Amino acid sequence: MKSKTISVIGLGYIGLPTAALLANLNYKVKGVDTNYSALKIIDKGKPHFFEPELENIVQSVIKNGFLETSTTAVEADIYIICVPTPIKIENNKPIPDINNVIEAANNIAPLIKSGDLIILESTSPVGTTEKLQEIFKDASVPVQEIHIAYCPERVLPGKIITELLKNDRVIGGLNSRSTNIVADFYKSFVQGNIIQTNSRTAELCKLAENSFRDLNIAFANELSLICDKEDIDVWELINLANRHPRVNILHPGPGVGGHCIAIDPWFIVSKDPEDTKMIRTAREVNNYKTSWVVEKIRIVADDFVTDKGRKPLIACFGLSYKPDIDDLRESPALKIAKSLMYHGYNVIGVEPNIFNHKEVKLVDFEKAIRDADLIALLVKHQEFLVEEVKNEFNKKIALDFCGILV
Ligand code: SAJ
Fold first, then answer.
1. Lining residues, ligand 1, CB within 6 Å
2. What is the C-alpha separation between 277 and 284, in angstroms, rounded?
3. Rounded to an integer, what distance in angstroms lies between the CA atom of residue 151 and that of residue 182?
4. Tell me: the pLDDT tens digits for 167-202?
5. Is 206 a catalytic residue?
6. Is 335 a catalytic residue?
7. Are 206 and 152 in contact (CB under 8 A)?
8. What backbone phi and psi angles, to 5 degrees, belong to 71?
9. How far apart are CA 397 and CA 7, in angstroms?
10. Are strands 374-377 and 346-350 parallel, antiparallel or unpaired?
């Protein structure tokens, strides 16, 4: 298997770690991306985003030449498509955009030869892998001679390298022969189990996993709203409920962010709006939680104005979409900071994983603690969990939306 060449199309959060890991296992890998400035950084042996353990691997595989980059499609034996599949919400209606997948397939179609593997890893609506077959019908080899499969990525940002190797993988080919052949490829580098199914089940499996988590977080967020009204500590409540042997409630927070859980459930809703009431409602509850947090901060800030006759300086602790990463995609914390600024409040941010932000003024921890009148704890970064730091928060008007002070 290692003699095969691989082309990874899309060198983002999933594609780059996948390409680097495969190159590190001595596959000859070509990474393809249209983002020239990202490729320039990668060519210097650096990832264009932060992910633990990734930099050393990228550095080594660029140096030894096992990973090379290109802005255009490159011929290979195995193609792995990891391009973004965004979703737009128009008039309350989710509209998935799989144009990047279609374009990637169109670009590789002229290069396809008999025996090639074409693997889609991007999160996609049910039926997308079948659409690829349509595109390859026009290729110079009969589609029966190529192997098309869907294999969703399931890695957790912050633990991508470990999870790429250790997680179980679901492989859904367009036919059982393709499923087997693609499964053999994954067996060459994955230590987890390789489970075989068809493409449509694999596609929905990925969407179901993230929707499951979204629903469970929505439940925790809904409890936090109820508890706030009833004057009950939601963290204590969840701790107590979780002592039941069959209850495991997740953590409430300022909403759900990232490019996966905040988006993927909409792929299911978009195909079947009638039968997806719970999935849609979970999305709405988690989105609502973000605006609820803004309102809570505004109430306290407005009280401060009444009391002191001046606007408070609000320090938002954490801007990323979840703890201990620098990823701002769909971040509720960033949305909250920006919404407060939009409403005319004075806002500063403390984000240990980011040096600079073009909209929110970032300051160091000491300055924020010294200058802020009001503190909004939005992301449970490890830096904020140190006992002395928590003591500093407790000396201020601190609104804790992520369970730092519990
Ligand atoms: N969150 C809460 N409460 C919790 C857990 C999470 O509010 O108890 C929030 C986080 O703060 C964050 C959001 O949810 O804003 C999502 O974070 P996450 O850590 O749950 O998930 P992601 O988006 O980083 O990664 C998910 C993972 N999916 C599942 O756990 C089912 C990962 O395995 C997927 O590979 C990834 O989506 C993806 O790429 O689809």
1. 123, 153-157, 209-210, 213, 217, 250-251, 253, 256-258, 260-261, 321-322
2. 10
3. 9
4. 999 999 999 999 999 999 999 999 999 999 999 999
5. yes
6. no
7. yes
8. -90, -10
9. 53
10. unpaired
